[in-house]
Specification:
Number of strands: 10
Order of helices and strands: EEHEHEHEHHHHHEHEHEHHHEE
Strand content: 15-25%
Number of helices: 13
Radius of gyration: 19 Å
Oligomer: single chain
Structural class: alpha/beta
Helix content: 25-40%
Largest sheet: 10 strands, mixed
């Protein structure tokens, strides 16, 4: 089978809800990434064969072929097609998988995998709230589904709390993890670790959500999301505006266009499990990906596990036995934000740049996703 390579990976800074990126149309936000990918690589934008875009809340300004609208807002010619996909928080990680699979199959040579989400302008859940408000149908889950799993609804907050309880993760431990996320993100920013991966948008050049003055006391003062629970807004990911993307090419494209690869796509895995606890799935998905790759957890130099809630990477660490010093070394979504559909290629961008900076070989990324799904991507640096 042919190989697929990442030749560039970029992201915007994370903008806080109603912050510096709130005035930017999400199509324009995504177009910033498309333009940066072709500019940085020097490739003729007309040779891009497809743009695959992850986006979760496909409503309002993110509706009506959102990926195509990103292309139309960019400097790419209108001959470049695009498609929008939704695999919840793993949407742009799945976009990367689809792009890599297209290249590996030999059907395409140059594909962009990207994601964009303005959680300020298109609030989370807009796509099904509008439907409900219009009095159309029963919502995304039929009575048969709800009866099958004996729930009134499926909730990521419930799932995150279930994971915390199952793995014995206390409020204090999760708050300490959240503080570490801010501290690592602050240190990375101050050291210039993100400079190579961030594309400034207007005057915003750094992630806006990092709390440089965070303390255990300030994090601990935040009330739980549900009464009696241990999950809070402070030990969960931030609502964020942002975009990210990767340029995926074949070996033939490397030679034809004189491109230098950052990394080779080593292994692509997606699994699914219990849709109620839902966010635990990265654990079995990681085991399957490593087995498929013929690697052990100790062979991996760096991990990116999305910090949707502190309980998720903490449970993942406990179950896999991975070295905590290798996990989310520049902080995670608790400090840097989680712009839903953009987070997949955002984490991959940070992963490959961190591996390059540290001289690492293998990196593993995984993402918990609504419905009990998880993607895992393993890359090898070149």
């Amino acid at each position: 089978m042919a190989e697929a390579y990442i030749v560039e990976a970029v992201r915007t800074p994370g903008g806080r809800r109603k912050g510096a990126l709130a005035g930017v149309h999400p199509a324009d936000l995504g177009a910033t990434i498309l333009d940066a990918l072709v500019t940085r690589t020097g490739i003729d934008p007309a040779v891009v064969e497809d743009v695959i875009v992850g986006c979760v809340s496909q409503a309002g300004e993110q509706a009506f072929a959102f990926g195509r609208n990103m292309v139309l807002a960019s400097t790419l010619p209108d001959s470049v097609p695009a498609v929008t996909i939704d695999r919840q928080c793993g949407s742009s990680q799945q976009a990367l998988h689809f792009a890599a699979q297209a290249v590996m199959s030999g059907t395409q040579d140059v594909v962009i995998a990207a994601g964009a989400e303005s959680m300020t302008r298109v609030p989370m859940g807009s796509n099904f709230r509008l439907h409900a408000e219009a009095g159309l149908g029963e919502g995304p889950w039929s009575k048969a589904i709800l009866n099958r799993y004996d729930v009134a609804e499926f909730s990521q907050f419930v799932g995150a709390q279930m994971v915390a309880d199952k793995y014995g993760l206390t409020r204090d431990a999760m708050d300490a993890y959240a503080l570490q996320s801010h501290q690592r993100a602050a240190a990375a920013t101050q050291a210039g670790a993100f400079d190579a991966e961030i594309v400034p948008v207007g005057t915003l050049r750094h992630d806006e959500g990092i709390r440089y003055d965070a303390t255990l006391e300030s994090i601990g003062a935040v009330k739980p999301i549900t009464e009696g629970g241990t999950i809070t807004a402070a030990n969960a990911s931030q609502i964020t505006d942002g975009a990210s993307g990767t340029l995926i090419v074949s070996e033939a494209a490397l030679k034809t266009f004189g491109l230098t690869p950052l990394a080779r796509i080593h292994t692509l895995t997606v699994t699914a499990g219990d849709p109620v606890i839902m966010l635990e799935e990265p654990i079995p998905a990681t085991a399957r990906a490593l087995a498929r790759a013929g690697l052990s957890i100790d062979d991996i130099d760096l991990f990116e596990v999305n910090e949707a809630f502190a309980s998720i990477p903490m449970a993942w660490l406990q179950a896999t036995g991975a070295d905590p010093a290798k996990l989310n070394v520049h902080g995670g979504a608790i400090a840097l934000g989680h712009p839903l559909g953009a987070s997949g290629t955002k984490l991959m961008t940070t992963l490959v740049h961190a591996l390059k900076r540290r001289g690492g070989r293998y990196g593993l990324q995984t993402m918990c996703e609504g419905g009990g799904i998880a993607n895992v991507t393993i890359v090898e640096m070149l």
